Amino acid sequence: TVLQGIILLPPRAICIAFLLLLAWLFASIATFRQRGKGSVPLKGWRRRMIQTTLSCLTRTLFFVMGFQVKVKGKIASLLEAPILVAAPHSSFFDAIISALTGMPSIVSRAENLSTPVFGTILSSLQPVSVSRQDPDSRKNTVTEITKRALSRGQWPQVI
């Protein structure tokens, strides 16, 4: 509603915006002054912050939006399944899977990393970026996924 030029947002929208900005803040802290950005895995407190804090914030965000997800069965560990497959990979529901599995690395187009707020959050997940302009991109992506899958737990799972 508009009241004398002031836009009043519903409480749910304010809560969603707050959670997104909080996720951006934690992602920014975790990647601040990170050496070898994107070429070396996050370790220690940085990795734990991404896995716990962003996972919790994402779950809370979806709860606020009205989603209640229950996991049946056991989620495969990093050593059991270094690569997770999410299908059909066509909507924001992939973020639910990411939150439930501890924020694994994702495969994403390189252009997504420059998106305000979401780009920083995405970068903190250490994505395998695919460049649509690079003719060798497919080969490079397969090589990177293979390298991460064979890293014996140094890199997060890849979804």
TrEMBL record:
* Pfam families in alphabetical order: Acyltransferase
Task: Kindly indicate whether the keyword Acyltransferase belongs to this entry.
Answer: yes
What positions does the domain Phospholipid/glycerol acyltransferase occupy?
Answer: 69-155
User: Which keywords does UniProt give here?
Assistant: Acyltransferase, Lipid metabolism, Membrane, Transferase, Transmembrane, Transmembrane helix
- Keyword Transmembrane helix listed? The answer is yes
Tell me which family the UniProt entry assigns to this protein: Belongs to the 1-acyl-sn-glycerol-3-phosphate acyltransferase family.
Its protein name is PCAT2 acyltransferase
> What gene is this protein translated from?
Lpcat2
